[in-house]
Amino acid sequence: MMSKTTDLKRRQFLKQLALAAGGTSLLSYQGQLQLIQSAYAAGSSDYGNTLTDHKTLVCVFLFGGNDSFNMFIPYSGDQRTYYETARSGLEITKGVNPDQINPADVVEAYDPENPGISHGEYAFHPSMPNITSLYNSNKLAVVANTGNLIEPVTRAQYLDRKNNGILLPSGIFSHSHMQNYWQTSEEPNPGQVRTGWGGRMADMIMDTNSASSVQALYTMTGIHPWEVGNDVIQLSIGSSGLTNVSYINGSNDRSNAWSQILADSHLSANPLEETYAIASDSTKDSVAVIQSALAGAPDFGTITGNSLANQLRVAAQLISMRDDPLLNQRRQIIFVGLGGWDTHGNQLETHAYRLGQVDTALSLFQQAMDAEGYADSVTTFTASEFGRSLTINGDGTDHAWGAHALVMGGAVNGGKVLGTLPSLQLGAVGGQDDAGNDGRIIPTTAIDQYGAALAEWFGLNSSDIDDIFPNLTNFPSSNLPLLFT
């Protein structure tokens, strides 16, 4: 019989390992451990038989709050006047210098609902020449002013929110609250597992990958709420692939001790220990499969230059192997990310550098997808917890609300601006979309609507989409129907 001291050390070891299990060489154990306390309904359709093609969704999360009003910039008209007035000192000026908007790079913000009609002249940041080219070649679209909403909100309703009962996400303007809400589209509920809408999508279509020995939900930048499901298990992979952990895959005393702990846990009467042991065995097997798949994939060495590009390089390798017998995955969901977007100071320099990283990474990734014939079956989209204020605080901007996003791929209705471009006039002088007087723009397209359009392209039906996005029915238009061709 195991002594109390030995049993205590064993339990402490298991606890410590659980805290460290989100590394780049392990599957997240969270998915399987959640099975103890909850289960998510499977999709209402027989996706395993109906979704016979291959598709991959790639989420690019910009951590910190991307100032999208300096990413997609009005060039002329009233919007330019409002922008320059609010942004005086941090506006992107017109001219021919590298940090200015060159007239040759101006694009039309075409309205997909009215072909040939433009919302006006806009330009991407000067650090994004490749994104400009992708937009002009109809491979990239802008989703205007999207953000965290429970129901539609006007300026008047927001200002009178204490009296009118309007429903708002908690912690607006807070990094942690808005990151979690963006990724889950749910308010926290004590005692209930909080899943992300990427994970819920993966739960719904699990049977499309029933022939695969690993589940096709990957993160290249650690574990985050977006890819957490109740049934699927996300695989955390570093930008250089997977590496073995010595105490799991080695042949030393520590590895032998770990193997004995797992053997004992399989026989345990404690369901948590038994489930943990099962998850660990599954992890070891899955890591071996992914390592073999990455070893057999093309190198994609052209996707390089920064940390985001390195993550997308591994994503490209996984995509290239999705119909290989090693993976055999008809649907893949991939999460990548880049930090450094909380630009309270030194914004012009910092933001230009970060946007340049995105420009390089996305363009090289799309070139690779085009070259390999995956363009129509891979959709890449950006996200950030919130936008930033139009007004400035010296040489930076503050936390705000609505923001523009980018969607890229061969199936995208590119060269268009989806949703509603907001007025950039400050509320103090009549701005209808300002939550106050500082240019914190109220979103006009909810994350639920944005996600629903992506889920529809991915192949989910309207009933399952409604289940994934709990607030969707609060909006008059359930998604962005013209986001894809």
UniProtKB/TrEMBL annotation:
Q: Where is the signal peptide?
A: none
From the Swiss-Prot or TrEMBL record, give the protein name. Answer: Tat pathway signal protein
Q: Where are the transmembrane segments?
A: none
Q: Which domain of life is it from?
A: Bacteria
